[in-house]
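Sequence of Interleukin 22 (Balaenoptera musculus).
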Amino acid sequence: MAARQKSMSSSLMGTLAASCLLVTALWVQREAAVPIVSHCSLDRANFQQPYITNRTFALAQEASLADNNTDVRLIGTKLFRGVNMTERCYMLKQVLNFILEEMLLPQSNRFKPYMQEVVPFLARLNKKLGQCHIECDNQNIQRNVQNLKDTVKKLGESGEIKVIGELNLLFMALKNECTR
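Predicted 3D structure, token representation.
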């Protein structure tokens, strides 16, 4: 009887050990699949400044009056297609960087006085997101950002104006996806 209890006890301990090992392996695998997002947040106070909010929206409004292409939306649901909620701020950082470097800085002499106030604000946000990165497969993000870039380049000057006309959408996307 004692031998039988010892045998069952050993069997139970073996099963318990195997179960713990399996649970640990599954936990490690799940953790590896979850993207690690670092420093991808902005302080909500950045978006609660009425003056810069009004300037951003006024700039977008002025540029949208010059936008003749109403069939294309750059900053919208299509941009986020296939991107996890936890990765959206990182993607917006990529979009913001492109818009600043390729569109706003070269166009800084247009849409005065708004551009001279909005560009430095967006540059500060971009700098605050400078350490934002993810450690996972970001193919969907890169594809979506590249599609945006390709669309803007294909539209030419109209694409540049459209980007400026959608700065209000970028502002709101950054506020919604990057603040906690």
